[in-house]
Amino acid sequence: MISAIGDENRIVGCSDLNTNRSFSFLLGTSTNKLYFVYNPREPVTLETDHGFLVKTGNSDVCQLGTADDPEIVFHKVLRMNSNAITNLPIPRLPHEAASKLYVDVNARKVLNGYIPPLRSQGSRNNIKSGFIASASSQLDANYKSSNAFNNYYTGPSPGSEWASDGETRDLWIQIKCPDMVRVWKVALRGRETNTQRIYRWKIEGSTDGENYTTLYEPQDPTPLSNTVKQFVIDTRDKFNHFRLFCFQAEGPNPGLSFIQLVIYSE
Fold first, then answer.
1. For the chain, what percent of residues have pLDDT higher than 90?
2. SS3 145
3. Dihedral, CA atoms, 192, 241, 245, 108, nearest 10 degrees?
4. Are the beta carbons of 109 and 99 closer than 8 angstroms?
5. C-beta separation of 214 from 204 below 8 A
6. What is the DSSP code string of 75-92?
7. Choosing a second label site near 3 at 20 to 30 A (CA), which of 59, 75, 135, 198?
């Protein structure tokens, strides 16, 4: 015990340490200690066998390390007072924090379709600004490419689907979008009759409508029937032209009744 009788300030320690010499304050053993090596800008070191526990009253506040793990464990709310936490790693577990950069570059999947109906149900002239549908051919005015982008099915009648004009090889249908977007899924539906099916095909993206990148291509023939099928796209690139290019299809007038893109948020 060190007596502190009287009204003067008390000092315990060393105040005349030479350069590169150390001063240690042992805490029960030689490996539990508070020590300092006198060098410019060197910090004071606290070294323990089983970590250092900070308490307030009878409550644990935080623990610096344990016998088995050097992590820091906080038992109370950590208040940053408007200061930043920096140099966060990429999160791997659900409870790990994420940096702003990670959130910015890892867009979230939007679950709703991106392309609006290109024609209203009662009009053939309601083309939405910025979305332009086109195709390699169309059977006639009742089988326009825009029919496949209506977001609803109007039945097996003219005006409800796109059909090509006698093409069974190297045909295509395309949508030009007003913005550059990153797609993660595409939904497709063939003709209502479940015949004249497209069965060898790929999905492509482009930024200029001339040079295309393959985004998805089934390894085996994949007929597009009269039920909606969804295909996941794995790309980190953004495009504003998207097309289905068909290598082979059943004649005489293959086509589609539904196309939808599902994108990532910004």
1. 58
2. helix
3. -70
4. no
5. yes
6. -S----TT-----PPPP-
7. 59
Residues 6+ apart with CB under 8 A from 232: 184, 185, 216
Instruction: Please tell me the total number of residues recorded for the chain in this structure.
Output: 266
Closest CA to 190 of 117, 257, 261, 259: 257
**For the whole model, what pTM was predicted?**
0.65
Among 150, 137, 124, 114, which residue's Cα sits nearest to residue 257? 150
Domains and CATH numbers, the chain: 22-105 (no CATH), 132-263 (2.60.120.260)
- Measure the N-to-C terminal CA separation of the chain; round to a whole number of Å: 65
In three-state secondary structure terms, 4 is coil
The tokens describing 74, both together, are: 């906080």
- Residues 70, 75, 76, CA angle at the centre, nearest 5°? 135
Q: Is 252 exposed, middle or buried (0-12, 13-18, 19+ CB in 10 A)?
A: middle
Tokens of 2: 């060190």
